[in-house]
Amino acid sequence: MINDISAGKLDEQMFKIVAHHQVPYIMMHMKGNPETMMQNTTYNNLTKEVLFYFSERIAKARSFGINDLIADPGFGFSKTVDQNYELFNNMELFKNLDIPLLVGVSRKSMIQKKINTTAEESLNGTTALHAIAIQKGASILRAHDVKEAFETISLLQNLKFH
After folding, report:
1. Is residue 31 pLDDT above 80, yes or no?
2. What is the distance between the alpha carbons of residues 136 and 91, in angstroms, rounded to a whole number?
3. Residue 160 a catalytic site member
4. Would you say 125 and 75 are in contact if contact means Cβ atoms under 8 Å apart?
5. Cα separation of 92 and 56, whole Å?
6. What is the arithmetic mean of pLDDT over 71-89?
7. Is 3 helix (H, G, I), strand (E, B) or coil?
8. Strand, coil or helix: what is 24?
9. How far apart are CA 96 and CA 82, in angstroms?
10. Quick check: 134 and 126 in contact, CB under 8 A?
11. SS3 of residue 144 by DSSP
């Protein structure tokens, strides 16, 4: 599996390598690079632009023969705290991409800043967002607290969502 924070934008050989090895490929949304991403938080319509980004990146990956794709909205990457929640609120729209959705919010600053806590003390917030992410269509949770994430998933499997 390859987890690429730039969806092929920082390495022009990425799609060729993934296609050659035929491994699952996680493509994340980010504008710029890790050094400049937080200066790139201006959007006209955040959700629409992120969905367009993925549509474009998925089409390019498919043109290389890559089929095992996973989308990661990139919470915390090129987004302010409020923008992270805006994107999270619209997460069910990512089902339209027709590929699995990976959500990585575990112990992130988007939780810490809203409830005035530290990474070490943000498990409750993480668990709450994990539960909602699953309800909104997340297929994969990237988590620091695996036992707790597994328990959340196990409980939610007993519930029916519309």
Report:
1. yes
2. 6
3. no
4. no
5. 19
6. 98
7. strand
8. coil
9. 23
10. no
11. coil
Across the range 12-41, mean pLDDT stands at 97
Cα distance between residue 4 and residue 64, in whole Å: 16
The token pair at 90 is: 């619209």
The pLDDT-based confidence of 88 (bands split at 50, 70, 90) is very high
Tell me how far apart the alpha carbons of residues 88 and 159 are, in angstroms, rounded to a whole number.
21
Q: Catalytic pick from 79, 107, 108, 136?
A: 108
- The pTM of this model reads 0.94
For the record, the structure tokens of 46 come out as: 């955040």
From the list 9, 113, 114, 142, the catalytic residue is 142
CA distance 109 to 18: 31
Q: What's the N-to-C CA distance of the chain in angstroms? A: 31
**What's the pLDDT at 161?**
67
Would you mind telling me the total number of residues written for the chain in this entry? 162
CA neighbor of 107 nearest in space, from 136, 76, 83: 76
Q: Which residues does residue 91 pair with via DSSP β-bridges, in sequence order?
A: none
The pLDDT confidence band at residue 1, using thresholds 50, 70 and 90, is very high
The amino acid occupying position 9 is: K
Please confirm, yes or no, whether 108 is among the known catalytic residues: yes
Return d(Cα 71, Cα 30) in angstroms, integer: 12
CB 51 within 8 A of CB 95: no
